[in-house]
């Protein structure tokens, strides 16, 4: 069967273009990933400082107000999902969607969803899940305004008494790998077992009046920072996932190009051999004639 050399050339040009695009996306994701990791690290430092400050209040045996600590007697749970607005990031979005679906199937309560990451929110809405709101992930310069409104939306929903708990779903980074997404309880407030054992709790905080209100304000600031941490961790995880996915796509394109190049060379060599044979046969026929 004859091989169409022009068709092979077109395929090779297409693969070359795809390889250039995936390599460019990989480089862009690597740059964005480093910036996202830096922002996430700064957020973790602030979070540790808030955690240490809360430990000083716990040492004084202060009780948190029921508004923050007591679960509501409601039959619904609110999941706040942090994911991506776009694709081309491997299984990143699918892992989040699968976790949400498993959570809904296993939950004995009704589950409402808020998505920060348009693509995942739209997919879950098409599958029949109840989406209260679906936000696009904010740009860097709009992040503080978005988080202020986002936190106020969640506090209003919590104070309405409609939900027994509010939980955050997002992927996090461990080194240069993306862990599978997990859900953490945002409200009612629970003490998180974070790695603060190596940090001695500071005793430099002095508060002689309204200690309980200061403690509640610190916890609320800590919870608001948890939303920022979830957003930044998810963003960094997406960039790592996209970088890995584009690296794999680039390698696959290179392998495909090599295979097409080998097929093209073999077909061209066979065509040249055939033409030489035809010329020799023609010359022999003329000589005999």
Structure commentary:
By secondary structure, the protein is α/β, with parallel strands linked by helices. The chain has 2 domains: 5-25 and 247-288, Helix Hairpins (Orthogonal Bundle), CATH 1.10.287.80; 29-244, 3-Layer(aba) Sandwich (Pyruvate Kinase, Chain: A, domain 1). It has 6 helices and 7 strands; from the N terminus they run H-H-E-H-E-H-E-H-E-E-E-E-H. Helix 1 (5-59) packs antiparallel against helix 6 and helix 3 crosses helix 4 (118-126). The chain is elongated and about 115 Å long. The two termini are 32 Å apart. Residues 194-199 have low confidence and may be disordered.
Q: What is the CATH class name of the largest domain?
A: Alpha Beta
At the third CATH level, what is the topology name of the largest domain? Pyruvate Kinase, Chain: A, domain 1
**Approximately how much helix is present in the residues?**
55-70%
Strand content: 5-15%
Principal-axes shape call: elongated
Major sheet attributes: 5 strands, mixed
Going by helix content, strand content and strand pairing, the class is: alpha/beta
- Average pLDDT for all residues: 84
Computed over alpha carbons, the radius of gyration is 29 Å
Number of domains: 2
Strand order across the biggest sheet?
A: 3-2-1-4-7
CATH-level-2 architecture of the largest domain: 3-Layer(aba) Sandwich
Query: What is the strand tally?
Result: 7
CATH superfamily of the largest domain: ATP synthase, F1 complex, gamma subunit
